Every structure is written in structure tokens, then in C-alpha cells.
């Protein structure tokens, strides 16, 4: 089968969430304040849940698709989504994980989180607009809502710091 299908995208999305998990766990280690540690640990757990969701969804979609070529996405869409996953704040190239070492303030970490949430929303909205399976659509709609909540939460926290 030529081109990328939803299974490729689900693997990319899982990779992005894995990087988010690593970032938030590392951020939790960087700060001594208990409430800040707990916030980053909570966000890491949210990312871990998203990893689990993408793993389960991947298995269900793989079972349904088999070798069906009708689920191959347009090359331009796939290249766009690959570019997002490669360059997003929580990217599949592990760049963000090492950025946390340079974070000196909670506000710095939150600003990285804000950009990461915006990147995730962009990735998931584009994926959603191009998916052909209802189960993927439902999961992405839920995850977009969660990412929007995280973004709002970060913005409120940044204003209070």
C-alpha cells in the first residue's frame, strides 16, 4: 500500500503524547514547590492516558482497516501532519525533553506547555478533518476538548504567576 494511513497518524500522535509525558515528568522533577510538582505530574498522567487511548485506538483501527487502501490519506495532508509532529513543541524527535533542562522558572515551563497544547490542537484538528473512521473521529473530538482545557488552565496559571 502506498502512502500513509490512519495507523501511521495514530503512531505519530502516540509519539507526540510520549514526548509530552517525558517533558511533564522532567518538569515535575525541576521544581520544589509541591503544588507545581503535582500540577506537572497530573499533566504527565493526562499524557499517559492519551498514550493508552492511542494504543487502543490503533489496535481497533488496524483490526477494522486491514489492508484497505481507502484509508490512505492525501500526500499533502500527511506531509503537513508529519511536519507538525516533527516540529511541534512535543515532537517525535525528543527535542522538547532536553529543553526542560533550560527552564528556570515555572512560567517558562508553562509557556512551553501553552505552545505544546496549541500544537496538539492543530495536529488533532487537521487529523480530525481528514479521518475516515468514526471511532478515530470521536476520540480526536474528545482529545481536542481536553487539550483546550489544558491550554486554558495554563493561560490562567501564567497570569497568576
Throw out a few tags for this protein.
mainly alpha, Ferritin, elongated, 161 residues
Produce the secondary structure layout.
Layout (H helix, E strand, L loop, with lengths): L5 H25 L3 H32 L9 H13 L7 H5 L6 H25 L3 H27 L1
InterPro entries: Ferritin-like, Ferritin-like_SF, Rr_diiron-bd_dom
Protein name: Rubrerythrin
Pfam family, one: Rubrerythrin
Textual characterization of the structure:
The mean pLDDT is 83. With 161 residues, the protein is an all-alpha fold. Helix 1 (6-30) packs parallel to helix 3 and helix 3 (75-87) runs antiparallel to helix 5. It has one domain: Ferritin, core subunit, four-helix bundle (Ferritin, Up-down Bundle). The protein starts with 5 loop residues before the first helix and ends with a helix. It has six helices and no strands. The protein has helices spanning 6-30, 34-65, 75-87, 95-99, 106-130, 134-160.
Report the CATH C-level class: Mainly Alpha
CATH superfamily membership: Ferritin, core subunit, four-helix bundle
Cα distance, first to last residue?
A: 51 Å
Main pleated-sheet profile: none
Helix-residue proportion: over 70%
The structure class reads: mainly alpha
Low-confidence segments, ≥5 residues, pLDDT <50?
A: none
Total of helices = 6
Q: Topology as H/E string?
A: HHHHHH
**CATH architecture descriptor name:** Up-down Bundle
Query: How much of the polypeptide forms β-strand, as a percent range?
Result: under 5%
**CATH fold category name:** Ferritin
Form type: elongated
The gyration radius over C-alpha positions equals 16 Å
Total DSSP E strands: 0
Number of separate structural domains: 1
Report the mean per-residue pLDDT as an integer: 83
